[in-house]
Amino acid sequence: MIIGKKRRGTVRPLLILPPPLDIFRVASLEVCFGKLTLMAFVLLCLSAINSGAASKHSGFVEVGVDRVWSGTTVRFGGLVHEGYAYVAYYDAERWLTVAKVNVEVVDSPVEKVRLPTRFGGWDAHNSTVLTVDAEGIIHISGNLHGGGLVYARGLKPWSLAGLDELRQMTGRSEEQSVTYPTFLHLADGRLAFIFRSGRSGDGGWYANVWESPGVWQPLFKGALFGNTWFAQSTSAYPSNFKRDADGIWHVALVWRMNPDVSTNQRLSYARSRDLIKWTTSSGKALSVPLSPTNIDVVDDIKMGQGLLNNVVVGIDAQNRPLISYSRYDARGHNQGYLARPNDGDWQRAVVTDWQGKWKIEGKGTLPGNIGFDSAVQRETCCILFYATQWRAGRQAIKLDARSFEVIQREQRPDIVPSSFRELRTFGLSKGVSRIFPLSDRWGNESAFSLRWESLRSNADQPHACAEAVMSSCIPQASELTVLVPR
């Protein structure tokens, strides 16, 4: 359903009547108390207040997009191209929505389209992804965790027209149980779509390709990443797909035996130019589907050794992968590690000196206590390793490019002013400010970012209700904005 164009403008903070309660919110209230309390009514009223249009901060202009659902830390996707941001998100009523925002003329209308799919509200797996093909047609997917494919595409270049209708891709059976939708741009200009079919601990990964004259086809028959390890089921958790200067894709994989994250094991690696023919780091051909038994092993970590599946790949000056990951050290503390292929083997090093143990176990989305950005090489001397830890904060650790010995540890400056990290949404005192970069049309990171606020993830379940903190079960809508560099 096309919502149409909405002109942004500053709204005075007046208390107004809320929109009619939807079934989801009424159900949440009944679970909590069996009736609507005065506190809940006030919070719902406040959720309807628009926080305004553009505002200025040091180095950025903040351009308003919409009010969005804030129940969990689900990720929103989007891109920026020729003065417009195209953003896929869940609006305040949880409908998957696409907005087209003029980021150069900040008082321009915002064009929006709702897709006929509604987010359940709590599962942080249900990220949104948005891209364009070589002709500029918008493609979007999202609201997926083991469900039938949710996908739409536009009718004309850079237009939202047509996005209010869901479509099939290839129609193959694997598209009936989709998680982790991912768009990639191939070297020949074609658009690829990669996804997991199945569930955690028992799911293969498949690839489709957008072919002229406008149809999706399987990139090849069968799975890209398999779902068996000898006689047992498994599923791959790939890193980011990182393309080097020669056009080769690099990916690291963690293998999980069942939905419990403690069964993560065997950090692995493969590379490919076209996603069809794959090799090890030394160039040995690999057969698909890739599996834990036929792939390049980076670090043969066993179950229960704290391996997280948030692995990130960067590229060094020789187009070799720099793989950042976390596992327990010999003391049982979580640490950040770096690995790189070197002379037919894998060079590995503990980079961080973190204290304390976060036990890696359980099902559902874990808190974001540890994270990485792609490591990079600066000139010939040094590698910068970027990590975030719940106590140490954001770190930039300089390493010797040959030995991986630590040269310097320092706190990493934030990419945005501190004011953007401050919570503004009433009732989200236990929430977090989300800032994610937008890409360019080819999937490369841009200088633009999205900002919104949400509650932290709760293993993909609703937060417990408390009369004193009603926003835990009926969280207030947050303002979604584009941070425009100036």
Summarize this entry quickly.
The chain is mainly β and 486 residues long.
Description of the molecule:
The chain has helices at residues 23-32, 38-47, and strands at 2-7, 55-57, 60-68, 77-81, 84-90, 95-102, 109-118, 128-132, 138-142, 145-147, 151-153, 178-185, 191-199, 202-211, 215-218, 228-229, 232-233, 235-238, 242-243, 249-256, 264-272, 278-279, 285-286, 296-299, 312-315, 321-328, 334-342, 345-350, 370-378, 382-389, 393-400, 406-411, 431-439, 445-455, 478-485. The chain is mainly beta and 486 residues long. It has a domain at 231-364. The strands form 8 sheets. Strands 18, 19, 20, 21, 22, 23 and 24 form a 7-stranded antiparallel β-sheet that branches. Strands 1-7-6-5-4 form a 5-stranded antiparallel β-sheet, with no helix packed on it. The chain is globular, with a radius of gyration of 23 Å. The model is unreliable at 1-52 (pLDDT under 50).
